[in-house]
Design goal:
Helices cover about 70% and strands about 0% of the residues. By secondary structure, it is mainly α. The chain has one domain: Rhopdopsin 7-helix transmembrane proteins. It is globular.
Length: about 230
C-alpha cells in the first residue's frame, strides 16, 4: 500500500493520539448501523425474503458500520475511504430505489433522476462555499444534499399518495438533520465536552437507516399483496 494511504487523519474531539482505541465512543457507536442492518434483515426474513434491492441495501448498511468502525480505529486515509464509500453507495442506491418503488418511475427515468441527484450532490459544496465561504459545518456540508433529497422525495411521495413512504422519508429527514447538527458541533464542543458529539451522529443515523430500510421492505410486501 502506498505510504500516503497510511497518513493519519485526526478530525474529531475524542482522538487525542494515533492509537487504535483513541476514539472508543466514535468506534463502538457504529454498532448502531449493525443493529439497523440486523433489524432490517430480520424484518426482510419475516416478510418471506422478498426483494433483492432491500437485501442489497441491508448489506450496504452493515458495510457502513464496518467502514466507519475502521475509520475511527485506524484513522488513516485508506480507512477514510472505507468510511465514505459505503455511505455514498447507500445514498445513491436508496435514491434510485425510491424513484422506482415509491414514485414508480421507469428504469431509464429513475437512472436519469439518480444521475441528476449525483451531479447536484457533487456540485453542492462549490455552490455552498460560493455563498457561505468559510462555513464548513465541521465537514458536514457534503451531507446536506442527502437531507434535501429526503425532504423533497418525501414531499413528492405525499403528493403521489404514497403516504407510508412519505412518513418514513420525512421522519428520516428529521432524524438526519438532527444528526447533522451533532456532527457539525463536534469540533466546537471539544473544550466543554472532550468526547465530542460525533458518536451521536452515528446513533441517530443508525435510526435513519432502520427507518429507511423498514419502509423499503414493507413497501415491497404491499406491492406483492393480493388485490
Amino acid at each position: 500500500m502506498p505510504s500516503h494511504w497510511l497518513a493519519p487523519v485526526d478530525k474529531y474531539c475524542e482522538r487525542l493520539d494515533p492509537g487504535f482505541w483513541a476514539e472508543p465512543l466514535n468506534a463502538w457507536s457504529n454498532g448502531a448501523f449493525i443493529l439497523a442492518a440486523a433489524y432490517a434483515f430480520r424484518l426482510w426474513r419475516r416478510e418471506d425474503g422478498r426483494g433483492g434491492p432491500g437485501l442489497w441495501l441491508i448489506a450496504v448498511a452493515a458495510a457502513v458500520g464496518i467502514g466507519s468502525f475502521l475509520f475511527h480505529t485506524f484513522a488513516q486515509r485508506w480507512s477514510l475511504l472505507a468510511d465514505v464509500l459505503p455511505i455514498g453507495v447507500f445514498i445513491y442506491g436508496y435514491f434510485a430505489l425510491a424513484m422506482r418503488r415509491y414514485l414508480h418511475l421507469r428504469l431509464l427515468a429513475a437512472i436519469i433522476a439518480t444521475a441528476l441527484f449525483a451531479a447536484f450532490n457533487m456540485g453542492f459544496s462549490r455552490l455552498w462555499f460560493g455563498l457561505l465561504p468559510g462555513v464548513s459545518l465541521n465537514g458536514s456540508v457534503g451531507y446536506i444534499p442527502a437531507a434535501l433529497a429526503l425532504l423533497a422525495v418525501g414531499a413528492l411521495c405525499r403528493a403521489a399518495g404514497e403516504k407510508a413512504a412519505a412518513r418514513a422519508l420525512l421522519a428520516a429527514a428529521g432524524l438526519f438533520v438532527l444528526s447533522l447538527v451533532f456532527r457539525s458541533m463536534d469540533a466546537a464542543s471539544c473544550s466543554t465536552l472532550p468526547v465530542g458529539t460525533h458518536f451521536l451522529w452515528h446513533g441517530l443515523n443508525g435510526l435513519v437507516l432502520a427507518v429507511l430500510l423498514r419502509a423499503a421492505i414493507l413497501h415491497e410486501r404491499s406491492a406483492h399483496a393480493p388485490d
